[in-house]
C-alpha cells in the first residue's frame, strides 16, 4: 500500500497548522518547511477547506488555520477522503474492472478486510496524537511569532481557547 502525494500533503498541512496554534500559516511557509510544491499544496488546501478542516484567508495577511480542534480530526477520515478516488486494486474499481476472476476470487474480500483494518486503525488516531508532545515535529514546523490570530470567541472553531489553532 502506498499513499498518494495529496494524502501526505494533507497531513503535513494539518500537522503544521496544529503545531502552530494561534498563528496563521501560509502555503509558502508549509512548502518550505515540508519540502512540497506550492501548486500541489494549493489544491490540497482548497480541498481541506471544502471539507471543513482548515480555514484559509487570502491577501497580504492571509494564511490558514485549523477550522476545528486537533483532537476532533481523525486521521482515518482524512485518509479516506483523499484516497477515496483511487481504488486499492483493479477489482475495487466498478467502472474500470477487467479482471476475469472477479466472480470467483477470494483475494478481493481479503484485500477489502485489510484495507478496512488499515482505516480502522487510523480512525483511532487524532491529529492531536501526532503533534502534542512531539518536540522534534514542533522544532521542524514552528513558524515565527508575530502572526497571531483572532480572539478565541465562539464561532471561530474555539481553537485558541482549546489550544487547537488560531483564527481569522
Strand fraction: under 5%
* Structural class by secondary-structure content: mainly alpha
- What characterizes the major β-sheet? 2 strands, antiparallel
State the separation between the terminal residues, measured CA to CA. 38 Å
Q: Indicate the overall shape.
A: elongated
In helices, the fraction of residues equals 40-55%
Give the strand line-up of the largest sheet: 1-2
- Per DSSP E runs of 2 or more residues, the count of β-strands stands at 2
Instruction: Please provide the ordered H/E string of secondary-structure elements.
Output: HHHEEHHHHH
Identify the quaternary structure here: single chain
Radius of gyration: 18 Å
Low-confidence stretches: 150-168
Helix count, DSSP H or I runs of 4 or more residues: 8
User: What is the averaged pLDDT score?
Assistant: 82
Amino acid at each position: 500500500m502506498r499513499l498518494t502525494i495529496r494524502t501526505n500533503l494533507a497531513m503535513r498541512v494539518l500537522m503544521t497548522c496544529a503545531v502552530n496554534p494561534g498563528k496563521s500559516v501560509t502555503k509558502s511557509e508549509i512548502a518550505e518547511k515540508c519540502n512540497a510544491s506550492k501548486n500541489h499544496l494549493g489544491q490540497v488546501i482548497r480541498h481541506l477547506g471544502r471539507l471543513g478542516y482548515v480555514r484559509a484567508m487570502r491577501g497580504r495577511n492571509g494564511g490558514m488555520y485549523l477550522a476545528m480542534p486537533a483532537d476532533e480530526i481523525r486521521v482515518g477520515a482524512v485518509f479516506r477522503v483523499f484516497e477515496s478516488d483511487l481504488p486499492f486494486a483493479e477489482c475495487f474499481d466498478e467502472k474500470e474492472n477487467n479482471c476475469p476472476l472477479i466472480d470467483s476470487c477470494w483475494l478481493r474480500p481479503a484485500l477489502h478486510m485489510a484495507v478496512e483494518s488499515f482505516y480502522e486503525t487510523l480512525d483511532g488516531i487524532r491529529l492531536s496524537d501526532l503533534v502534542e508532545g512531539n518536540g522534534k515535529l514542533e522544532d521542524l514546523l514552528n513558524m515565527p511569532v508575530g502572526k497571531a490570530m483572532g480572539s478565541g470567541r465562539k464561532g471561530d472553531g474555539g481553537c485558541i481557547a482549546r489550544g487547537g489553532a488560531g483564527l481569522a
